[in-house]
Design a protein that fits this description.
Belongs to the dGTPase family. Type 2 subfamily. Keywords: Hydrolase. InterPro entries: dGTPase, Diverse_Catalytic_Enzymes, dNTPase_2, HD/PDEase_dom, HD_domain, PHydrolase_assoc_dom. About 55% of the residues lie in helices and about 0% in strands. The longest helix has 24 residues. α5 crosses α9, α9 packs antiparallel against α11 and α10 crosses α12. β1 and β2 form a beta hairpin. The chain is mostly helical. The protein has a domain of about 210 residues: Hypothetical protein af1432 (Orthogonal Bundle). The structure holds magnesium ion (MG). Magnesium ion (MG) binds next to α4.
Length: about 350
């Protein structure tokens, strides 16, 4: 039986039916690997401002190229398979260790950034694989408890602490002794904060997408938490960007693509940037500073500071191999920064809260 002409079901077997056109598969050129073929397609189809994977500046340690994947596809896979990436699921975005299921975590934030950045990169004919790799790796260095944890380590650790530098340290040193990523991915990860300047337009795509993602999803989460209401949002911003979460993201993504197509820059029009900044300032006033979302922040800071000083004086308790040769303070900083919210709370209890005496009958 035909269902709307698209799918059919007969004799216990479902099929998608006839498609109107055929996919034209270009035959692999003789003697070429799949990767080389993909590199050729990039050369034929990408913008003159895109980074071609065949022209990468390379890795810290030379490696034999993969026969199937380009260097940037390979970097993306290494990041996805890393332990640091899996830990993002238990790290705070804005709401500390939320028990409700629908609040963003650092992992879902990362996935939203990646999705937005890929859409922009594809719209601009930039290298989508490079963009995706940068996006998936950009926040790997975040501490437990979000910016509260970062503030503490920045204050107590000699030389300070910045999550973007730590993200680079994760991929260069801490994860399995270093993932040996390409120069372009490392540059995009290090330079993703707004104050920095990534060297590639793919890095710029991640930078604008990070801002589009967090401003919008933090509004969504704050509304979900009952801290703000939709009608509290600044009217001037809503008039430009739209009244719903989906409309606002769509306006911003379309704005970046239309404003940046075949230009050597990726950015918003002035109107959209102003509207986005209005929303961001609103979040600082109503959500990021002093709201109930931040009520537990002082306790979280206390945990991070206590753990850091404990591991500085007890480096033998640090369960990490890749930074063994470093100073105890560096090792303590890496260890605490790598913890999830949950693990930090568990370790804090183990180290600082006395265990009750359990008497067992002989
Ligand atoms: Mg981010």
């Amino acid at each position: 039986m035909s269902r709307g002409g698209w799918s059919t079901f007969s004799g216990g077997k479902a099929s998608l039916g006839e498609t109107p056109g055929k996919v034209l598969a270009a035959p692999l050129a003789e003697g070429k690997t799949v990767r080389e073929r993909t590199e050729e397609i990039e050369e034929m189809t990408l913008s003159p401002f895109a980074v071609l994977s065949s022209k990468s500046k390379g890795r810290l340690r030379e490696e034999k190229p993969c026969p199937v994947r380009t260097c940037f596809q390979r970097d993306r896979d290494r990041i996805i398979h890393s332990k640091a990436f899996r830990r993002l699921k238990d790290k705070t975005q804005v709401f500390l260790a939320p028990e409700a299921d629908h609040f963003r975590t650092r992992l879902t934030h990362t996935l939203e950034v990646s999705q937005i950045a890929r859409t922009i990169a594809r719209g601009l004919r930039l290298n989508e694989d490079l963009t995706e790799a940068i996006a998936l790796g950009h926040d790997l260095g975040h501490t437990p408890f979000g910016h509260a944890g970062e503030e503490v380590l920045d204050r107590v650790h000699p030389g300070g602490f910045r999550h973007n530098e730590q993200s680079l340290r994760v991929v260069d040193v801490l994860e399995r002794g270093g993932l040996n990523l390409t120069w372009e991915v490392r540059d995009g990860i290090l330079n993703h904060p707004w104050r920095c300047r990534p060297s590639t337009l793919e890095g710029r795509c991640v930078q604008v997408s990070d801002r589009i993602a967090y401003v919008n999803h933090d509004i969504d989460d704050a509304i979900r938490a009952g801290i703000i209401k939709n009608e509290d949002l600044p009217e001037e911003a809503l008039e430009i960007l739209g009244r719903t979460h989906a409309e606002r993201i769509n306006t911003l993504v379309t704005d970046v693509i239309e404003n940046s197509f075949l230009k050597e820059e990726v950015g918003f029009t002035e109107d959209c940037l102003r509207a986005l900044n209005l929303l961001r300032n609103f979040l600082f006033e109503r959500v990021y500073i002093g709201s109930i979302a931040k009520r537990e922040e002082d306790k979280a800071k206390g945990i991070v500071e206590a753990l850091y000083s404990h591991y500085c004086s007890h480096p033998e308790e640090i369960l990490m191999e890749s930074n063994k040769g470093d100073e105890p303070s560096r090792r303590a900083c890496d260890y605490v920064a790598g913890m999830t919210d949950r693990y930090a709370i568990t370790q804090y209890k183990k180290v600082f809260v006395p265990r009750s005496w359990i008497f067992e009958e002989p």
